[in-house]
Amino acid sequence: MKRYTIACLLRLSPLVIAFLLSGYLLAVQRHSLALLALAVGCLFIVQTFRFLKRTANDAKRLIDAIQFSEFNISFQHFVGKGLFPELIPQMEKAVFRFNEKLKHTEIEQHFYDLLLNRIDSPILVIDKTDTIEWINKAAIDEFGKQQPRHVNDFSTNTPALPLILKNITPGDVKMIKVKRDGITRQLAATAVLFTSRGRPLKLVSFKNIQPVLEESESDAWKKLIRVLTHEMMNSITPIISLAETLSDADSSTVKDYDVMSKALQTIHRRSKGLVEFVGNYQKLTRIPSPVFNAVSVAGMMNDICDLLRADGVLFSYEIQPEDLVFVADRTLLEQVFINLLKNAWEACSLTAKPEVKVEIYRNAYHNPVIVVSDNGCGILPGIQDKVFVPFFTTKSGGSGIGLSICRQILILHNGSITIESEPGKGTRIIMSFPQHQGL
């Protein structure tokens, strides 16, 4: 900066002297010399202007290089053309740093692009206008659309996909079936919101859950078949045994008649129990499709409280906010509450001060959540993963379908139900609905 200041003074000082001299010569009537001094002053003006213009041009070259990311530039050969030497190293250093940062950013972007394109799960990034900002190779292969620009571009090959991409919010899990190469797969979609360069964006990722569903379905069938086999064998085996006894008995005596009568009564009782068992199984497969309506949670809980009080089931409830409304099938939802509250009250039957609570609120994702808790005997850890299996029960005389029906109803509402329990300390049952099920 010092040299630049001196250079400016060396150009401005003669200019000032020339004009002062010109004024003096005019004052003493030396017009010819005054014109000469004025011409010299104009020459210094031109030289000063060129000096400043060259400096400005070099500064502009630096700004243009930064603006258009053109960093293959040097200022060393401009030292004697107007740009003061003290600034040359700083400008060269700035160019070098910008160049290094650009290379680092490009390498990092290439790394993440390569990494995300190697992931076998489809991933998309869309903006608030549903324009696709980024898509990985797995998504292009999965949904069969090359270089899509907008979510509606998927409507030809995957009609259900655009609506999911537009409506999915954080906390939601959307299911979609995709057919590719003649094979139908089920994908689960989740979303994350983030901001990039001041723009709100939504990242949607898909996970193939078909193997998990098939494994779960296989396990469910195995458990169901095991339970059905156990129950039917318990009923059929004594029936066969009694039938053999009757076929071998001589009905001519009173004694044999009494034996036959008792045997027939036993066969009738076991057959009736078997019919009831099959009837309970039919209940699991005949849950009606829900009819969704706006349901006042406070009004529903008041009605349930009055209904169960008549059976001696007492509980307290808290709703936040008090005017909370669900979009649900009230009849089915009431059935869930009745089953869970009766179970909770029975679990507290041996407790000195039985306490059953219901909490209804919205979670961090604005989704409705229902928690039914009690201070009863709790559930043993080895049993907790079996309570939703049809016909499994630890209660004498229980059918073992109550919790199974509850889960089926929650699934029909696109919700979930989980259990947290500790023996001797009580049980908590947590149910949640996706956001679009609440108002």
Could you walk me through the main structural features you see in this protein, from its secondary elements to its overall organization?
The chain has 439 residues and is of the alpha+beta class. It has four domains: 2-106, no CATH class; 120-208, Beta-Lactamase; 213-285, Orthogonal Bundle (Helix Hairpins); 293-437, 2-Layer Sandwich (Heat Shock Protein 90). It has eleven helices and twelve strands. It has helices spanning 2-27, 31-67, 87-118, 137-143, 161-167, 210-248, 254-285, 297-309, 330-347, 381-384, 402-412; strands at 123-127, 132-135, 174-180, 183-196, 199-208, 293-296, 316-319, 325-328, 356-362, 368-374, 416-422, 426-432. The chain has a five-stranded antiparallel β-sheet with strand order 2-1-5-4-3. It has a five-stranded mixed β-sheet with strand order 7-9-10-12-11, covered by helices on one side. It has a two-stranded antiparallel sheet with strand order 6-8. The protein is elongated and about 160 Å long. The model is unreliable at 79-83 (pLDDT under 50).
